[in-house]
Amino acid sequence: MQTKKTVRSGQALRGDGRPSDSQDVRDLVARLLVLLGEDPKRTSLRRTPERMEKALRFMTQGYRQDVDQLLNGALFPIDYDEMVIVKDIDFFSLCEHHLIPFFGRCHVGYLPNKRVVGLSKIPRIVDLFSRRLQVQERLTVQIAETLQSKLNAHGVGVVMEARHLCMMMRGVEKQNTVAVTSSMLGVFRTQIQTREEFLNLIRRGTVGDSE
């Protein structure tokens, strides 16, 4: 059975399943190589436009994904009212200002309101929004607001810690700088005790870490 591919509105697929504008992207990459002083016909660069087009498609696939399809009904009624946390979720994204990666870890917690979400869906939601052109602040808010909306939770907390290559490779060139952003919704915002519990739990060592 052939899997149906999701594409953005107005984006057609060729007979081989590739987006119809793939060649346009590859032509732009070849032109960019020329403008940077390179020869796209050089042996090692001949397939660079193709590789870069495929890489960009992968790194921006979040535009072509739908949250409801991703969740796929993985919301379960349960009588559980304690905090649920999934922490140390690795993520990679592209800074929308320079198209240079930023990457790090995301910590997510929520207080259920009579239902929970499958644990694997939380990293998938992080990936969905990470794989777009982003700024870390908006990315943090999008993850939190999506979980709050879909779960109708009593509260959601999201903390993201990231290194930005646009600060490390260029600009100020600070190699050890970490950007930290947070979004606290519901009781995570209004109740200091709940917020502190979340922050303390994500600071603890991960299961399996040595003492």
Largest sheet: 5 strands, mixed
Helix content: 25-40%
Report how far apart the termini are: 49 Å
CATH structural fold name of the largest domain: GTP Cyclohydrolase I, domain 2
Shape category: elongated
Cα-atom radius of gyration:
20 Å
Number of strands: 7
Mean pLDDT: 91
CATH superfamily of the largest domain: GTP cyclohydrolase I, C-terminal domain/NADPH-dependent 7-cyano-7-deazaguanine reductase, N-terminal domain
Order of strands across the widest beta sheet?
A: 5-2-3-6-7
Spans of at least 5 consecutive residues whose pLDDT stays below 50 are 1-10
- The CATH class designation of the largest domain is Alpha Beta
Number of helices: 8
Q: How much β-strand is present in the residues? A: 15-25%
CATH architecture of the largest domain: 2-Layer Sandwich
Structural class: alpha+beta
How does this model look, in words?
The chain has 211 residues and is of the alpha+beta class. Helix content is 36%, strand content 23%. The strands form 2 sheets. It has a 5-stranded mixed beta sheet with strand order 5-2-3-6-7, sandwiched between helices. The longest helix is centred in the last third of the chain and has 16 residues, at 136-151. The chain is elongated and about 60 Å long. The chain starts with 21 loop residues before the first helix and ends in an 8-residue tail after the last helix.
